[in-house]
Amino acid sequence: MPWSITAVMRGNECFMESTDNPKPDTAAWKALVLKYQEPSLWRALWQLVNTLVPYALLWVLMRYSLAWSYWLTLGLAMIAGLFLIRIFIIFHDCGHRSFFKSRLANDIVGFITGVLTLTPFYHWRWEHSIHHASAGHLDRRGTGDVWTMTVEEYLKSSRWKRFAYRLARNPVVLFGIAPIYLFVIGQRFSASKASPRERWSVRWMNLAVLGVAAALSWAFGIVPYILIHLTIVMVGGGLGIWMFYVQHQFEDVYWERGENWDFTAAALQGSSFYKLPKILQWFSGNIGFHHIHHLSPRIPNYNLERCHKSDPLFRDIKPITFFSSLKSLTFRLWDEKLGKLVGFRHLRKKNGP
After folding, report:
1. Of 96, 135, 193, 228, which is least surrounded by CB within 10 A?
2. E-assigned strand segments in 131-217
3. pLDDT interval class at 19 (50, 70, 90)
4. How far is CA 21 from CA 226, 259, 267, in A?
5. What is the pTM of this model?
6. What domain range is 194 assigned to?
């Protein structure tokens, strides 16, 4: 890359600072990205309408469908799970203060969509900013990412830790059980290093979630509500985790240590361009353009595709398609010598299981 930038933390925000003297082409490239960082009130409001209104209607339909068939209700819940992914992307953009120009509007919509996704706004934003500042950095793993061990770390681990790692990376656990645990249970507790504001955001969110759960249980009945909501969370959460997994767990992903780590390389090489069918791109809020998002988190989701198409630097990045992304399920460990992710079969050739 002709220049590099370093991510630094200031409070709860993730900023980028140039580490080289600006060059003419660098200034043009930065100006290109800045063009798409400007939020649009009308685009944001329309996205709220075409996401939250259908989601609310689906809950109404599910309420009345209970009189006909649980299978119909669960089918509607699965569709609602797709909308939940889109709601989470709005929540995500509010966390980056990119959805609206107004900080207050981002915080309000972030809290509301946080209630719907069972996620405390300020606490999640704090952890997610760490993810953006450290993605692809081998020495700073552990916050807001998928548990990833190197080959050497795995071989030196105890049998119990190896078992735990294999279990955590199992697709059934990762995309089936983990979403329920993460959103229903895990998000109810704050991290030990969280500040008072982040801790209180968890408490207020728990109260809000409890209130909504009580109201919907009264309207639907406790058992139907639990079945419906667990289905929505399993579908939305599972697909959301899959998206996140593919975006940072592909064969030639970027991982580096210490001073060799570079923010720009981590964004463009360590975050995938996940090219999805248009309908799935819509439900996932364009987050498949993840290389653009990590390069400039202040670009709202409704501007990501336009930014991607604006310059060869972005367009020439090889995409991961839906079918090619399935290969990511075979990747388990980072091989520092080869500079790529490998599967457990790679170990059997060398050292046995």
Report:
1. 193
2. 149-150
3. very low
4. 57, 18, 20
5. 0.88
6. 33-144+172-240+270-323
